[in-house]
Amino acid sequence: xxxxxxxxxxxxxxxxxxxCSPTADGGGEQGGRAAAPAVRIYPSPGSERxxxxxxxxxxxxxGTLTGVVVYAGGVPVPGSFDAxxxxxxxxxxxxxxxxxxxxxxxxxxxxxxxxxxxxxxxxVPEETFRIVSVIxxxxxxxxxxxxxxxxxxxxxxNKAAVEKALTVRSATPVEGAWRWAxxxxxxxxxRHYWPAGQEVGFTAHLTGVRAGKGMYGxxxxxxxxxxxxxxxxxxxxxxxxxxxxxxxxxxxxxxISAGMATTVEYTTTSGAHLTMDKSNPVRMVSPNRSKGDPxxxxxxxSHAVRISNSGxxxxxxxxxxxxxxxxxxxxxxxxxxxxxxxxxxxxxxxDPVIIRGTDxxxxxxxxxxxxxxxxxxxxxGSALRPGS
Length: 388
What we know:
By secondary structure, this protein is mainly beta.
């Protein structure tokens, strides 16, 4: 026999307060009195494979609901009444493979009342899905261009249902949207840069969400992070200069040397980059070359801040003779060692680095090049937007 779901004494107490005996649909007419209000529960009491996606609904006819108590595995289930108090709905989809206990009371204008209690069990999923990683990290302080990157453990078929369950809130509300990059990754970007100093909360209400045939979420996910100061860098590869602004004020000017542009791979990409991570030192190996080939290198580089997935960094380099004069790098931004160390120390993940002056455009999916897309283009990748 399966263990009873929820604390039955609490449910019975609620019914006792109504001053009537439990019935499924009310008491009917007795002695000429008007029919007592009827109370109905969905999913139907007694169900053994109740669906999860529609949540739980309690409805009263010929009266209003005066109390609804729902427990799942001994834990209260939150929900709310509609404006007329004739319908109560759970706030979220139901958890799969869970026992639910429901008790509700309704009252009519003439003072008659009725109640309903019920138990049901939700379906056990054939397959589950979950979040395996979220960027930013919990509690991280990030730059104003920072995206929220969510990776799932399996391909998501019903992207609209999953996207609908992802919420982002900040102290100052911003307009933002999700875009899918394949079947296992969803990315959130605000329309404009985050306001500096914001506390941002990301919540994935995935419990009970149907992501595909027989596939359901069984756990929620919460991450909170902080947007720091607004540090935005601009680099002009033609003048060989980099300017760093913080909250609108220039805080550093740096002479730089960019990619020599003798090949595509040695051409710095133009566009809106974001700082992705940093390392001191980082090992850099020439792409598509083997030891002994012309142009081969394998070196350790100090104070390197990554800005793409195609091997581009802002980093220290002793070729001060070229900085501010000529582009001689393999695609990275070379800076004077002391200034590169300063940039390394002051950078947060998600700081915008805007590069101009080359004929190689940064692809939107090269690293975190998400600001390369216009807002209408970004919305096209959402599963919930018209025309997406």
